[in-house]
Amino acid sequence: MSGGDPARSELDRRILAWMSEEDASEDEARFEELALQLFSHQFAHCEPFARFCRARGATPEDIGSWREIPPVPTGAFKEMALRSFPPELEHHVFRTSGTATRRRGELHLDTLALYEASLLPSFERHLLPDLEGPSERMRMAILATSPEEAPDSSLSHMFGVVLERRGSPESGFLVQRGELQTERLLGELEEAAESDAAVLLGGTAFAFVHLLEAMESRGHRIALPEGSRVMETGGFKGRSRELTRDVLYQRLHRALDIPPERIVNQYGMTELGSQFYDSVLRFPEAPRRKLAPPWARVRLIDPESGGEAPCGEIGMVTVLDLANTGTVLAIQSADLGRALADGFQVVGREAGAEERGCSIAADEMLLERA
Amino acid sequence: MSAEEIRAALERLREAGRRIRDRPARETISALASVLDTWREPDSRVRRAVRTEYADATGFSPDMVEAAMSRALAGWTGDALRSLVDQELGGIEALEGAAPRNAAGFEVTSVLLAGSLPSPTLIGLLAPLVLRSPVLAKTSNRDPVTPVLVAESVAEADPELGACVEIVRFSGSDAACVEALLAADCVVASGSDQTIASVAARVEPPRRLVGYGHRLSVAAVAADRPADSAARLAEDVALWDQLGCLSPVAVFVADRDPGAAMAFGVELADALADLEERWPRGPVSAETSAAITRERDEAEMRAAGDAPVLVYRSTGSSWTVIVEADARFRPTPLHRFVRVHPVSGLHDLVAALTPVKHHLASVGVGGFAKQPREMTAALTQLGASRICPLGSMQAPPLSWCHDGRGVLLPLARLSDAGL
User: Fold this and answer.
1) What's the pLDDT score for residue B262?
2) How confident is the model at residue A171, as a pLDDT?
3) Most CB atoms closer than 10 Å: which of A198, B190, B396, B399?
4) Residues forming beta bridges with residue B208, ordered by sequence position
C-alpha cells in the first residue's frame, strides 16, 4: 500500500476492502462517496489535474457527483507524469506499447496493491466463473511476454499475477524477446488436447493472429478440450495485418475448436488500474457486452455536446476507476463505444469509411516516418 | 457494374479515341476551353448542380461550395488551358506532329478518383483529353456527382469528344472490376500512399502509372498585421472544410516573442468564428468529432501542465485553434482545426516541416521572410510544390505543378522529330 499521506492510505484501505469482498457488488452510494473523496485528494496533490479541472470549473467544492469529474485524455500520459504522490515515493512505471504513436504513455505508481487487487476478481468473474473456488487452478498458455522480460508492461504484469494465483504448474508465457514460441505453444496445446483438461489461452489479439497463421499454413487444427477458453486483448491499429474481431473468432474456432461464445475480449489500457471483460462466459444467454467491476464506471460521452450520449448512441469511452488512487481517477480513452444494458460495446472505425478530401491527417504521416 | 462492362467500356473508348485523333488537335482544345468557361460561369447548369446535388452528396454547405468553386475556377479560363499547352508541350503543334518535340496521349487513360473536391476531378478528367487520350474514370464513394457533370459538360461542348469519357462506379474491393480498370495503357490514381503502392503493384511497365498521394499544407506568417493575415488564412482553412491537400493545417508565426503567436491565434479564432456564420462547416462523423475533442483536451492538459498553450474552440466541433508552445508538428484531425506555432525564423520553419516533408504540398505565406527568394528555395528543396500568398491557397493556377510535376507531361509520350 502507498506510504506517506494518511488520508490517501485510508482511501486505499477502503477501496482495497471493497475489492477483496467475495461478492463485491454495485453500490452507487459507496462509489459516489469514494470517488468524490479520491477526487478531492487528487485535486490537492496532482497540480496539472487540479489546473485542468479548475479551468473547467470543477473543484471539489463545486461538484456534487462523480459524473462531474473532468476526465483526462489518455494522450496526456505521453506528455507529463500525472502523480498524486511525491515523486520520491514512485515504485513502478507502466508504459503504453507505443504502437499507435511514437511517444509512449507512462503510468507512475507508488503501489501495485490496488492494481493487483482489482485485476484478479474481474478476471476470475469473467474468465473463470465455472471454477470451484479460489484454490482451483487452470492450465494457462499466455501469448505475451513475462513480467520479468517486460516489467513496464501492465498486461504482462496482469498475466503474471493471474498465473501466480490461478494458473496450474504447466502454465507459462510463450512470447520471448518479442517472438511467439510457436513450436513450444503447439506442443503444449497438443498435450492439453490429449489430457482432456480445459486450457485458457490469453494474450494479445495480434499474437493470436501469429498463432493462427502458423497453424493455417500447415493445415494444423487442434481440438482443445471442452471448457477451454480464450482471453484476447488489444487491437490491430498500426499493424500490417488487420482483421475484424468476428473473423479472428471464426478462425480461432476453426483452428482450436473454441467457439466464439468462449472467447472473451478484455478492454483495458495502461492508464487504468481496472479492466473490462466481455460478459459471454459469465452470462452466456445475454448479449455480448463489456462489464465493469463495481469500483469502476463507464460513461459514453457525446463528443459534440460533451454530455452523455443517449443509450445506444455512439460516444467516447470515459472511465472512472477507483483503482487509480495514485494517478487520476477519470480517464478519457481514445475509443468510441455505445451503452448496452448494464455494460457497453467498443465500436471500431466504420468499415469502408473514406475521407472526404485529399489531405492527410498528420498523425498518419508522422506514423509513416516513425 | 461488372468487369465485363468495364472491358466493353475500354473498347468503346479506344474506338472513340481513334475518331478524335483523326480530327485537328485544336478542335479538341477549343472544346475543352469552352468546357472550362462553362464551369467558370456561376449560373451554368453544372455550377447549379454543384451547389445542389454535389453539396447534398458530400455534406459540404452550399455557400462554402459556391465560394470555393468561384475561387478555384477564377483563373481556369479557356485561355489558361491554351497557355498550359504552350507551357508544357510547346504549343498545339506538338499534338499534331508539327513540332521538334511532339506529344501524344495513351490509347486510353483510367483515372481512379479519390476524395470529393470538384476541381481536382475536373482537371483530372480534362488533362488526358487535351492529349486526345480517352478517359475511363472510377468515381470516389464520396463524390458520385462531379465526374458525371464533367462528362456531361464535355459531351455538350463536343459530342464526339463526349464519347471519349466514361464514368464507372463500383466498390474498390471488387477485385475483378479493379483489374479491368487497371488494364488501361495509362492509370492515374489518387489516394493514400498505401492505395498508390497497391495500384503500382498491378500496373507494370510499359503501362504507365501516375500517382498522386495525400498531402498537407501549412502557412507561415509574420507577426505584424495579424488581423489581416488571420482573416485570409481563415478562408484558406474554411474552404473545403480543410479537407483538401491545399488546406493549411498549421501556421507558423515568425517572432521571437511567443506572445505574437498568441495574438495571431486570437485573431484566427475570431475569423474562423465569423466564417462559421457565412460558410458553416459540414457535419462530421462521431469518430472525427471525438478526435477533435481529444486533441482539444490534450492541449488543455498541456496547458494545465504549465506549458503556454491556448485553446480557442467553438461550441461543438466546428472550429478549433490551438496555440502551441513550440514548433513540433502534432496530429491534426482536420475539419477546421488549426495549430499556431511560434518560430524564430526560416531555419526553425524548415526544421519544423522536415518530419512531414514527403507530404508537403503548399505553403501559404504572409510576409514571413525578409528574403522571399531564400524562403522559396528552402521550401522547394524541402518538397513544397506551391508557395503562394495567404488567401489564395485554394486557388492554384491550372498549370500548378501538382505533386511537383506538370499537369500534361506525366500523361504524355514524347518524341523528338528531326525530319
Assistant:
1) 94
2) 96
3) B190
4) B186
d(CA B143, CA B117): 8
Residues B242, A360: C-beta atoms closer than 8 Å = no
Collect all residues with Cβ–Cβ distance below 8 Å to A273 and sequence separation of at least 6: A114, A115, A118, A119, A321, A323, A324, A325
Q: How far apart are CA A271 and CA A290, in angstroms?
A: 18
Chain A neighbours among B 299-358 (CB < 8 Å)? 300-306, 316-317, 329-334, 355-356, 358
Does residue B57 belong to the interface with chain A, where contact is any CB pair within 8 Å? no
Side-chain-side CA neighbours of B67 within 13 Å: the count stands at: 19
DSSP A167: B
Cβ contact A164:A140 at 8 Å: no
Touching check for A238 and chain B: CB below 8 Å?
no
CA-CA distance, B377 to A13, in Å (whole number)? 65
| pLDDT for the residue numbered B12 | 97
Q: Determine whether the interchain pair A55/B303 forms a contact, defined as Cβ–Cβ distance below 8 Å.
A: yes
For an interface test with B, the pick among A74, A79, A345, A360 (most B C-beta atoms closer than 10 Å) comes out as A360
CA dihedral angle for residue B75, residue B77, residue B82, residue B87, rounded to 10 degrees: 10
Asked if the C-beta of B278 comes within 8 angstroms of chain A's C-beta atoms, the answer is no
Q: Any bridge partners for residue A320, and if so which?
A: A297, A330
- Alpha-carbon gap, residue B338 to B323, rounded angstroms: 9
CB contact burial A208-238 (16+ within 10 A = b; e otherwise): bbbbbebbeeeeeebebeeebbbbbbbbbee
- Per-residue pLDDT of B20-40, as tens digits, reads 999 999 999 999 999 999 999
CB A185 within 8 A of CB A207: no
The amino acid occupying position A89 is L
Q: Name the nearest CA neighbour of A319 among A245, A267, A251.
A: A267
- Partnered with residue B218 across adjacent β-strands are B250, B363
Q: Give the closest of A75, A359, A369 to B247, CB-based.
A: A359
Neighbours of B101 (CB within 10 A): 12
Question: Rounded distance, CA B178 to CA B168, Å?
Answer: 11
Question: A225: which DSSP letter?
Answer: P
CA B119 to CA A252: how far, in whole Å?
Answer: 48
Test mutation, A358, A368, A369, chain B, max B CBs within 10 A? A358
ipTM: 0.88
Q: Do A357 and B359 touch (CB under 8 A)?
A: no
Closest Cβ–Cβ partner in A304, A332, A355 for B317: A304
